[in-house]
Fold:
Amino acid sequence: MSRSSDFLRRLFSSWTTALGAVLLFIIVVAAIFGPIVYTVDPFEMLGRPAQLPSARFPLGTDVSGRDILAGILNGARVSLIVGLAASLGATLIGIVIGALSGYFGGLIDDTLMRITDFFLTVPNFVLLLVIVSVFTSTIEVITLAIAFVSWPSVARLVRSEFASHASREYVHACRGLGMSHMEIMGRQILPNVMAPIIVVSSLMVASAILTEAGLSFLGLSDPDIVSWGYMIGVGRTVLRSAWWMAAIPGVMIVLAVLAINLVGEGLNDALNPRMRQR
Amino acid sequence: MTSLLTVKSLCVGFPGKRGVLPAVEDLDFHIAPGETLAIVGESGSGKSTAALSIPGLLSRSSRPVVSGSVRFEGQEMLNMPDRKLARMRGPDVGMIFQDPSTSLNPVFTIGRQICEPLRTHMGLDARAAEARAIELLELVKVSAPEQRLAQYPHNLSGGMRQRVMIAIALACSPRLLIADEPTTALDVTVQAQVLRLISGLQKSLGMAVLLITHDLGVVWETADRVIVMYAGRKVEEGPVRRILSQPSHPYTEGLLRAARKEGRDGFLTEIPGVVPPPHQRPPGCAFEPRCARAIAACRAAVPAIRSTGPGQVAACIRAEEGQPA
Amino acid sequence: MTLLKVHKLVRHFPVSRGFGSSAIVRAVDGVDLEIAPGETLAIVGESGCGKSSLARCVAGLDTATSGKVEVEGTDSADMLTADPMRFRRSIQMVFQDPYSSVNPRRRIGEIIGDGLRLHKLVPRAQRAERVRELLEQVGLAADYADRYPHELSGGQRQRVSIARALAVNPRLIVCDEPVSALDVSVQAQVMNLLVRLQRDHGVAYLFISHDLALVRHIAHKVAVMYLGQVVESGDAAIFDQGFLHPYAQSLFDAAPRIGRPEGEEVELLEGDVPSPISPPSGCRFHTRCPQTIDRCKVEAPDLRPVAGRDVRCHRAEEMLARMMPPQAEAAFGTG
Structure:
């Protein structure tokens, strides 16, 4: 108990982390409860296009007369779910590949790292465009595709952590006791290297949100789902006459990414054992 | 007697969760020119902290709290401005550390690292500095010194690197050399060479040496006087030969038996228990929980340092009563 | 019957030297050893002599390039494929670094209990009880089971490592410099624990160290290694008689010794240990040996019996004649 409260105290000891956490909390609450409380359909054309904010449309309407607030609330769900799921997927792939590579070394390491290098050298977004254009653009495919292009950085990190632990004496002692490689990797080493993995994958949520927004902006995302990127894409055409249409979802993306990055940085500091001494 | 370095009531602490943790408490000592003084102790004794605080080399990120007085030839070194201190390191005070692989910079050549202090402190030009560097490498018995200048630290063995470290420390002919566990990372056959080298250089250059070590054998072979530290305090001080033959503090005595690997019937003589961490030091004598001679009075107050023999002082209220049965 | 028999063990590591060229590190180069049940064999040498590689091969953590290791008459390589858990129960290892040899994220009880769980030695319900027993055997209070390694001192962590090894009731424990990272006053505690456990449980030790004075008290047999080879080996009596091989002698003399008379000239070895990638021709010690003659430079000496021990030196008989008993006595301090 004291360990976890101590951790929380360290985590929120800086005001930037606290700010990020508050922002993130607001966005998450809006994503979960927003569409339940504010039940307007974001696809329905309800009024005159390009209205300024009013009592009926708190954030105005877009070029087709759809409620922007409804779009923002529904888009928050999409952005967060895509971000979390893609980051989780990338982290899992990265842990498996990085752990095998770092723990066993040798030929396994060489093979897996050449594959990783391939993914790292091809620009992510280009690879993503290829995948999305080959498959149908449903939100599931998009999420998987983002995970598929994002794992190499996790794999690199996990590999170096595992390689450093694999040569430590406690790992030799476990092998000497006859412990299986699976158990050594999963139960002995992994808990030791979770801290940096958590930090990287939390920051990856932000980049996944940006990637999804980029795809939506280009009109390559799921056409049946409202996301922030899609809304910017819609507002782009009237940027000069009705700038807020693109600006509102744009600000939301900035806030969400900023919040996640601030929390990620805070996690980094709080989980860093050297900072813990203070 | 003139004194090169005089340390008075030196206290060093590090801020922690539970307030300032004392690392060194109330340490007094002096070093005469040309003398070798050894500070011996186990981990947590504060010996390295004490040595590093003299030339102001304590890591700033640990925010050390230092008080007392450290005078080098009468000049107060504590709270001296950094630029002035930096000018003293080299010509006045040289340092060598335990691990030559981390104290040499891996991206610069040996030549560059030896020449740099020669050029900044002694004002030598490039050619003169190089000639002096070769002399120094010869002095520390590095083979093929001309070729070494162009080599990088990773090209050298551990013993060679430590010799290069000594050459750098000696570059500006310091009057005091502080050696912090200079041979702990080396193999015994190489350790013997390096110790002999330090002793030889000390005699020929007439410099004083402050030797920090955990090894009483090294103390016996190299030092004139010794200070034994335990849990941040000096517990005994005196001439090496006297202290290591007639110790008056029970801790020195235990350390001596442990170092001699004295034993009976396959078992070694041990000191029971562990060194108390800084936040759990007892109010009286810090060694009392581990001491076979402890009495109730030992728990009352930190024992004062008093004379127990010729040139010998110890912090033990039962020093005269001899070894336990 | 012998418990462990090491026969012509060789461990070579290929190393890349860049630009496609490679070299071979001859870490262990033909070592023979034997250990009887309940006995301690000390292997002594400096860094790079191959003692740790040897330890890892014996403990089944590394595979020998050639030669074999037999445990109670069975080839260990065969046992590791046929019945690895039996091998693990026979031989355990205690490591040097008290900070990396226990997993910082696991409780002491879990660390010690791993062996019991993996080898199904006690029913799950009794595991905690057995862990408490093991803790007490190594001199730690039972409540340490719930603590994490960072709450323990170096000496206490070494005790945990010993308890972890002891949990599976091994016949042999390979100790790789188990006390060299500890303070001298704590070293004696851990050494005494090892001796006590040997007397109580009859466990044998392969004790790796760089310190001849330290192993003197616990070793029944000793072998001194230099550049991958044993240069002198015999039973503990040679501590009193004195070593014959010039390297073993230097190793002993070079160690700082309290009470050595002032002015006693000790002949120091010149230079550093040569690289095990290209060991010197002839006798591997000839580049640093004060006794080198021409023959040493060309002809590699064999390990051969001289005066009740095995010595790898052409001039062993001369060394024996030159050695005077009182000098040997003095060299070891207390007798």
In short: The interface with chain B takes residues 46-47, 153-156, 183-189, 191-192, 195-196, 210-211, 213-214, 216-218, 250-251, 254-260, 266, 268-273, 333-334 of chain C (CB under 8 Å). The first helix of chain C runs from residue 51 to 58. The longest strand of chain C covers residues 22-35. Residues 4-17+27-206 of chain C form a domain with the Rossmann fold fold (CATH 3.40.50.300).
